Amino acid sequence: MTTPSSTTDLSSTPSTTAWPSKLTDAVMYDTLVNYLVSMARTVEGAMNRALDAIVSLDSPRTAALPSEVFLMEPRINEMEIVIDEHAIRLLRQGSFTDDELRLIVAALKITNDLERIGDIAVNLAQRVISLREMPGAQVPEELAPMASAVRAMVSKSLGALIFRNVDMATHVLESDDLVDQYRDRIFEQLLQRMTLDTQVVSPGLQFVLATRHLERIADHATNIAEDIIFWVRGLDVRHGRGLAVGAQAGTEDAAGVTTEGTDGAVEGVVEVGTVKAASSRRTPNMLADTVEEAADDEASVTNNSHVLHSGVTPDCETERA
Q1: What is the rounded distance in angstroms from the CA atom of residue 196 to the CA atom of residue 155?
Q2: Model-level pTM?
Q3: Low-confidence residues of the chain, pLDDT below 50?
Q4: Distances (CA, A) of 154 to 22, 62, 85, 131, 221
Q5: What one-character-per-residue DSSP string does 115-177 give?
Q6: Nearest to 272 by CA among 248, 244, 238, 305
Q7: What CATH fold (topology level) applies to the domain 23-294?
Q8: How far apart are CA 178 and CA 48, in angstroms?
Q9: Residue 228 has what pLDDT?
Q10: What φ, ψ does residue 265 adopt, rounded to 5°?
């Protein structure tokens, strides 16, 4: 008499070894994104300290900010190396989806732009130290609104990274021209002053370099926004090819963008159907007025973008505990 075999055909049962592997892969990709957000926060903190120092040049409360920027640079450089090594570790696996591959490529490019923003923050801090030693250095009137426009661009880039929000990234692309206009106007004003009074040539040149630094930060924020669009949508919008993205985003969500896991909609940035149409009709003067109206009265040192744009990025600690 034969009895049923007590052994089980392993080939007919689902394999459980795939689950830990998939879980590990998901954790590694989430870790890469978290590394990016952490580095972006640190870079933003260094940038905001440098901007506060250059805008409030004569304020005693900003005297120590350049030193803080110098101390944050090694940390930013180390974070870039960590992220690059983690991305290379993912590439060595050799098997990933299109979305995962775009994330790795975008991460390698975003870290480079973030590191460059950190370097530019150091350059701005050096300008501040030089200007403090020059008697009669007068901050250009439009430097503060230009700094506010740059803050908004970096803030929205960070928000787009956290929320994977293409509309925020598209807004960054639209803001780049405004920063260029500020740079040109400030340069013309400084050139006129230096022509009339040779004593202001030295501080004037320092402010010209400062506006160039701000414009470069805006360019890197634009690069980050383009990389985020590539990651999320798989679209290459570099070199002015991002105009179609705004129209596509408006058709996909005319009612607004909500973020899963947050307390509500991102106020002041979403409302895609209305804001996108209105922003396309704005003149440079209207954009400048909008930035000036949105700029807060900075009574204390800005640590991160939550202070200025609480609806775009959530609050967090910028400095090391």
Answers
A1: 38
A2: 0.72
A3: 1-20, 253-303, 305-306, 308-309, 312-321
A4: 34, 21, 25, 25, 5
A5: HHHHHHHHHHHHHHHHHHTSTT----TTHHHHHHHHHHHHHHHHHHHHHT-HHHHHHHHHHHH
A6: 248
A7: Methane Monooxygenase Hydroxylase; Chain G, domain 1 (1.20.58)
A8: 19
A9: 95
A10: -75, 160
